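Journal club prep — side note

Before the paper discussion, L.F. wants everyone to see what a predicted structure for a comparable chain looks like in token form. Sequence:
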Amino acid sequence: MIDETIKKINSIVENMGENGELSERALAIAIECNQRYIEYLDDLLDSVHVSGDITVSVDGKKIKFQNANSMAAWITEVME
């Protein structure tokens, strides 16, 4: 999934930085990837319009939200 790819990119950049191998270009690409991911998530949240309770199944566990705002807050927290 996209979030796994972003996590891998961030891990690679972190390792490059720790090893003194991080170039400005690699850092710029990583920043751009993260920015596009954030924009994607924002667009996704903007496209979801739900009234009432929302129930989401994650790894076989059901999570119930009171409204779209509480779901959006949870998604934002999980993605940080």
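L.F.'s comment for the group: The CA atoms of residues 9 and 30 lie 7 Å apart. Keep this in mind when we get to the figures.
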